[in-house]
Fold this protein.
Amino acid sequence: MAAELSMRYGCNPHQSGARCFLPCAELPLQALHNSPSYINLMDALNSWQLVRELKAATGLPAAASFKHVSPAGAAVGVPLSDDLRAALFIKPEAQLSPLACAYARARGADRLASFGDWIAVSDPLDQATAELIRVEMSDGIIAPGFEEGTVEMLARKKGGDYKVLQIDPSYEAATLESRQLFGLTLEQPRNDFMPGTDFLSNIVTKNQRLTDAARRDLLVATIAVKYTQSNSVVATWEGQIVGAGAGQQSRIHCVRLACGKADRWYLRQHPAVREIKFRKGTKRADRDNAIDLFFEDELSSAEEAAWQGALRQVPARLSTAARREWLDNMQAVAISSDAFFPFRDNIDRASRSGVSYVVQPGGSKKDADVIAAADEYGMAMAFSGVRLFHH
């Protein structure tokens, strides 16, 4: 008899009768509060694999913020600087555990995209992390356990509609996986690839040096890209995603998205942003939207009204030169691509966002051009030989 978890609906509310089941076995998953939807479970199960593998690869607690089956952010538990705390609306006196640092970084990678996200954490949820989650707009969480009182705290979110899932951390999926599409069953071996000690050994550029931090960030980027809808490129810095370019048909658009988001993430920490004064009672999401508009060169009348409506006083916008000067401080960014770079334009764009380290499968007819571009910018680039498409 199949073990089953009831679901409120499928991808959309009109797709009723959805269920999650495992034939002839006990489910490794239980709902501690509310029933998830189909998309909730897609996000939950993908994000759980991501954080589990991040912890296995780095030895650090990990967290992810998922939206529509791709990470808006993911990170390991690297301590936060004072500037980053301020950019993420975290009070200086807040006591952050390593898991809380991982969650703060994951949520802060792209705060606009993380609005209404699904959260995954690699370790039992502690009070410090739950306190950060409590004030954010989120849809649900998956964790291997929960400290006393944290489920009750989160159950009050969204007027009681928050979803809380617990997964057995010892559960391993079957070797083969299948799905049905248009009534047909597709089957393949599960993608169980994990980057090992030799993953970054084939460095093809003149610059052969990878720091310990660079190795960590390349691993984080690679495991994240493994669970990002393809085509995809992920940028990381200081143990976290700073930009993800997901689901694009063109590789250069993946890079533009990932690096553009990385630029936005770093600009949030500019002193001019930290000095913005919001009107009393302005919600966190409205603050995020206002900060995002701060970096636009031109606004419509409606956008200008929304921008000014959130502020106590309207600051002067940063000039293009001032933004460039600040962004030039962002160095040692790492990127991972789920397939080869077909042209050097990807490297040219990445260079403007402080990218110093690259890992990609290699195998393009233009590999020599891509390597030459990396050499021009002094980047260290490894060919992994491993494609990581995810659909």
The CA atoms of residues 340 and 381 lie 12 Å apart.
